[in-house]
Amino acid sequence: MARVARVPDAEDLNLTPIMNMVLVLIPLMLLNVVFMTISVIEVTMPQRSAGAAQNGEPPKRLQLFISQQGFTVVESGASLPALENCPGGGPTICPLKEESEGTLETDRHDWRRLYNTLLEIKQKPDWADHEQIEIVADSSVNFGVLVKAMDVSRNQRVPAAEVKTAIKGKPMTTDQEMNESQIPLVDSVDDQGNSGKMPLGMFPVVILGLPTVSH
Amino acid sequence: MAVDLSKFEKAREEQRRAEMEKALADRIKAKRKAKRSRDTGKTALGLNSMMDMMTIILVFLLKSYGEEPIVILPNTDVPISVAENTPEDMTVITVNKEGIFMVRSRILEIEDGKVNGNFKKGGESGLIIEPLEAALRQEVEKLKSIAMANGKEFGGDMTIIADQKTNYRLLVEVMQTAIGTEFKRFRFAVIQGSMKESGRYASAPELP
What we know:
The structure holds two protein chains of two kinds. Chain A is 24% helix and 19% strand.
C-alpha cells in the first residue's frame, strides 16, 4: 500500500524569538550610546630640556599665565599692566568671583576680558600673523579652566548676528554677548593646501608650558 | 387624475426609500458581522511595521557602536569645548579621579589628584611617572612595529581624556612622561558644546 506523503501547509516564519532578542538589544544599546560628540584640541608641549635654547629665543612670544588669582598676559617678555578693578603688580585680569564652595573654578574667571585683551594684541599689525600662544598654568589649575582658556584664545569671535558677514573678531562688551558669540568662517588655506571656509583663528597653536609653583 | 398621479408617485417614493433603508441596514449588519468574525479569527497583530522600524534602529545603533574611536570611561567628567576637530584612532590615556588608564586598564591610582611620589622619578617633585612610562614604552614598541609593517613612520600621536577637575600639574606629568617615550603630538578629548558651557562638564551644577 502506497502511502501518500502529506505535505504540511507552509507555515509563517516564527519571528517571536528574534523579536524578543531585538527588543532586548535596542534598550541595551540605547543605554550605551553616548549622545555627545567628541572632538579634540591639538596641543604641543616642549621637552623639559628645551629650556636650554634660551639664547635663540624668538623675539615675539605671547604667554598666558593662569593662576587662581587670575590671568597674566605677557607680550614679548613684558607683562601687560593690570586692568581696572585689579590691584597693580598682580595678574593682568582678576577673577570675577571669589573662590567659594560649590563654584566651579571655570565660572570664576573673567573670560571676556581675557578674550578682549588677546584680541587687542592680535589686531596689532605686527601680531596679525602670529599664531602661537604659550599657556602656562599653576599646578592647581583645573583642566576645565585650561580647556576654556584654549577655547577663548584659539579663535576670533563676533556677536551671533554678524557671524555671516564678519571678517575679523570683535571685542565683547558683556558676558552674555561673549557666551552667545560665534566664530565666523573665512576663506583660508590650511597646512595641507586645501582652501575653503575655515573658522577664523586668533592664536590657534597652543604650546603648554611647565607649571609654575602655586602660591 | 392629477391627484391619483401624485398619490402614485408618493407611494413609489416611499417604497424606494424603504428599500434603500433596508439595503443600508443590511450593509451595516454585514459590516458588523464581518468585524465580529475578524475579531474572533486567528489573524495576529500586525507587527510588520514595528519590526521594520526596529531593524533599522538596530542597524544604526550597531553602526554608532563600532565607530567611536574614543571611549570615555565611567567617572570621567570630560570638559566641554567649542573645538570641532574629529578624533582619530590612536593611543588613548585617560586621567580621571581614580587613576591613570591606558585604554581600559588602570596603570596607577591617583590620590587627592596627585600621583604618589614613590611612583615618580625624583620623588614628589618629579615629572616622570614610572609605571606609566613602562606601559607607554611597551605601547610605543608595539606601535612602531605595526607602523614599520605598514611602511609608515610612528607618528607619536596621543589622545588624552582628562576629568574636568584634573589639575594642571598631573596633566603635565602625564605629558612629560609621554614625551620621554617618543610621543610628540597631543590631543585633548573634549565634548562639543557652546562657549557658554566651555570648560564646564555636562553634569556640572547650573550656572547661578
